[in-house]
Amino acid sequence: xxxxxxxxxxxxxxxxxxxxxxxxLTNARVKRILSLSGYDVSLGKPSPDxxxxxxxxxxxxxxxxxxxxxxxxxxxxxxxxxxxxxxPGRDGEPPLGLHLDTRGVHFDPxxxxxxxxxxxxxxxxxxxxxxxxxxxxxxIKHANLRKYNxxxxxxxxxxxxxxxxxxxxxxxxxxTASRADRNTFLEMLFVAREEFPAARxxxxxxxxxxxxxxxxxxxxx
Length: 221
Description:
- This protein is α/β, with parallel strands linked by helices.
- It has helices at 23-26, 28-36, 61-71, 114-121, 127-143, 173-177, 182-195, 207-220; strands at 15-19, 39-42, 51-55, 75-80, 98-101, 162-164, 200-202.
- It has eight helices and seven strands.
- Strand 3 (51-55), helix 3 and strand 4 (75-80) form a beta-alpha-beta unit.
- Residues 1-6 and 215-221 have low confidence and may be disordered.
């Protein structure tokens, strides 16, 4: 993917990235990845030639956005990479990679992101790049990699005939950006019951809620 004009890459002169979220400064892994990507994490007031780093659409992103409005410095949105880590960040494990976007975030359908524009406009005719992508896909499949990887490969899948209803943590940025809420989930659940009345309905729980759900099930049984 071609980088946006003026954006430093690894091996070039670092570009100052002004941040207003303490995580950029205290998380050594995040700071190191940004440094290797050509960004010098900084504090202070940026000039229009600098960048402002914000974490996706987190509760603190408004700080950087407000500074960007006052200084005309462009925003670089930082998010966890699609292959993040073994354990979730809630368990204290830092990411193995970062997703950097100069336009938006990939989960916000209201505005395009660098990833969306690349997939929409790039001719995808670079044979070497496509071969690398195919090799990466096969490596991910072979290693059974996910965004988080603390799962049991020997755990058997449920018997066929079930309906999977996807859920997400309440208040997650991807939910709010998609203009979804609890009623959206309840509507999906209703449709699943209506269309497949005889099937089991499975709802995958985020890791942090599994112990609670198991305890409730134990009490009920």
